[in-house]
Amino acid sequence: MLPMLSRVSQRILQSGVCKPLQSVRMLNLQEYQSKKLLEDYGCCIQRFIVASSRDEAEQQMQDFNRRRYMVKSQVLAGGRGKGRFIGGRSDLGGVAVAEGYAQVNIRCHYSIRDTPKDKFYSSKSLRFFVEHYDSCLLHLNNKQKALSLVEEMVGKILVTKQTGKKGLPVKKVLICEAVSIKRETYLAILMDRETNGPMVVYSPAGGMDIETVAATNPELVFKVILHFFAMDEFVYTWQLSCCSLRSV
Q1: How many CB atoms lie within 10 A of CB 175?
Q2: Architecture of domain 31-177
Q3: Could you give the CA distance from residue 203 to residue 218 in angstroms, rounded to a whole number?
Q4: d(CA 213, CA 221)
């Protein structure tokens, strides 16, 4: 009986009436959605907003004052930073930083005739006023640059190494506080076809060129296969810790 069913199933597949099913990814998260999930579960995430127009971004940034902003196109593709917009500036990628310095002119009505010069310039109150005023100008200047970047990205087509020549439309952008990067690492949880289960992939050489690292330096990519019924949480934690120690 079983051999007969096997022969029948093979004939059906060969005839094309019933094709084998292919796995389809049903869950796709934008970067801002991933950040929100990480934040909800206690991970440290810098402040950010999401906007679909310049006006919306300007409204949300009224109380969002930073010296530098990162403006990031929200498309489901990698390589955004090195991508380019169709019909856009040749030096503008899908990820850009808004920063700059504004010239500050301060008019002070303080009389220095009766005050020694060194004492006048070391005045704490004057120094605080200068720094505060300078900071405000920098924030306003950088906000305008960030808003200009929003205008250049939203509604445009971004082409990256993963989108093909047609590219993908940018409907939203993420604007976040720019932070200084001391170290970049890579961590992902994938579905492994060989074991039919999840696998953790870690690399100390993380960043936007992780594909290049995997091709040129495969020894810097560590993999931990998760067997649900074989090991406990402690063993997985120990394995991942070893990956981190080997990468130092």
Answers
A1: 26
A2: 2-Layer Sandwich (3.30)
A3: 9
A4: 8
pTM of the model: 0.68
Burial-class residue 57 by CB neighbours within 10 Å (0-12, 13-18, 19+).
buried
Give residue limits of the domains in the chain: 31-177, 181-248
- Tokens representing 178 are 């720019």
Residues near 111 by beta carbon (within 8 Å), at least 6 away in sequence: none
Q: Which amino acid, residue 86?
A: I
Half-sphere exposure of 83 (CA within 13 A, CB side): 32
What pLDDT digit, counting tens, does each position of 80-115 carry? 999 999 999 999 999 999 986 544 444 444 444 444
Strand order of the sheet with strand 48-51? 48-51, 173-177, 69-73, 95-98
65, 37, 35, 38: which is closest to 50 by C-alpha?
35
Q: Which residues pair with 173 in a beta bridge?
A: 51, 73
**Beta strands at 95-98 and 168-169: parallel, antiparallel or unpaired:** unpaired
CB burial of 101-118 (b: ≥16 within 10 Å; e: otherwise) equals: eeeeeeeeeeeeeeeeee
Q: pLDDT for 151-163, tens place per residue?
A: 999 999 999 999 9
The CA–CA distances, whole Å, from 236 to 21, 66, 74, 227, 239 equal 32, 39, 33, 9, 5
User: Domain 181-248 class?
Assistant: alpha beta
What value, to the nearest 5°, has the Cα angle with vertex 7 and ends 6 and 13?
90
Q: CB burial class (10 A; 0-12, 13-18, 19+) of residue 92?
A: middle
Angstrom distance (rounded) from CA 202 to CA 219: 11
